[in-house]
Amino acid sequence: MSETTPSIQPLTATQRALSLAEIVGLIISCMPRNGPGWGRDLLSCALVNKLWLEDSLAMMWRSIHNDHRPLDDGYENPGIDNTFLEIRYDRRQFYANFVCCAMINLLDDSWEGEDPWAEGGEFEGLVFPKMTVLHVMLTDIDGMLATGSNTCDGEAVLPSLNCPNLHTMSFELNDTNLVSYEVAADTWESIFWDLPTKFPSLQHLDITGHAHIFPNALRRLQKRHPNLQGLEYLDMHEIRRFLSESELAELDPIGVNHDPMDNEDMDLEDDPDSGEEFTEDLWEDDEVEDGNGDDEDYVE
Q: How do residues 35-93 score in pLDDT, each as one tens digit?
């Protein structure tokens, strides 16, 4: 070896450690999430080398949800549909392979056009193989219910995402001043109707707050979607009677002069201003045959 030939120095313990995928993955996973500068720090990690890039990308795209965004990003609608619209068509599947958890907006009568996730839509053919949790937002970025009004009483459609390993779905509101009983029973009925065909692997549902549904709605859902577990523990209430117009005129409609925070300790069954009667005993009816329920007023 000549005197001009540089000698090869052995790697230090630190250098060896930072070249191991397990160590790099642990470092990136322990970075404080959502804090100021988190996104920029993660981008810096991605620029170190190929090994760091792979783990950084996995962390960046693991969750597409408001609760998992850096605080300095401000409030935007990070729905998975809005996010993937900004990605070049031939790169979408590459990033979709990283997503484990996401939020998406409910489609309803006010949405013009077809389901972008269905056949012929903008995202046709896109698959999310690692997605196990999906948060469906009942309100938009402005905190309005899905129809853009103070009530959601129309038919709603669950987006046709292709996530074959989905395990849990939750229904949430962006506005904490709203409660899910402002979503009408027929809206829930249309949502339940979509679940077995669009998300057959689903095992758990989570619904924020009270939800008012038609009699035997959960039993019909369980009949059509046997993989679902724990439906009897959901905080849902069956509608037993609709009030007449004259009775409703004597009540203070929810959302006009009613503040849910004024009686947050009051059960809906005890609320004198409630426009409907409810029961919590969802599982004490007769046997359901053919998934149609045994309620004489039910019309499929």
A: 666 778 888 888 888 888 888 888 888 888 765 554 444 445 568 888 888 899 999 99
Question: Which residue's structure tokens are 């404080």?
Answer: 32
- Looking at the structure, tell me whether residues 274 and 137 fall in a common domain: yes
Closest CA to 236 of 258, 253, 217: 217
Rounded Cα distance between 66 and 43, Å, is 19
| Helix/strand/coil for 50 | helix
Same structural domain, 45 and 72: no
> 10 Å Cβ neighbour count for 68?
15
- Asked if residue 231 and residue 114 are part of one domain, the reply reads yes
Burial tier of 99 (Cβ tally within 10 Å: 0-12, 13-18, 19+): buried
| Residue 271 dihedral angles phi and psi, to the nearest 5° | -80, 115
Range of the domain at 42: 14-60
The C-alpha atoms of residue 152 and residue 147 are separated, in whole angstroms, by 6
Angstrom CA distances, 70 to 33, 41, 61, stand at 7, 11, 13
CA 5 to chain CA centroid, nearest Å: 61
Tell me the CB-side half-sphere exposure of residue 12, using CA atoms within 13 A: 3
To the nearest 10°, report the CA torsion of 202, 203, 208, 211: 90
Residues 111 and 244 in one domain: yes
Question: Which residues, including other chains, have CB under 8 Å from residue 13's CB and lie 6 or more apart?
Answer: none
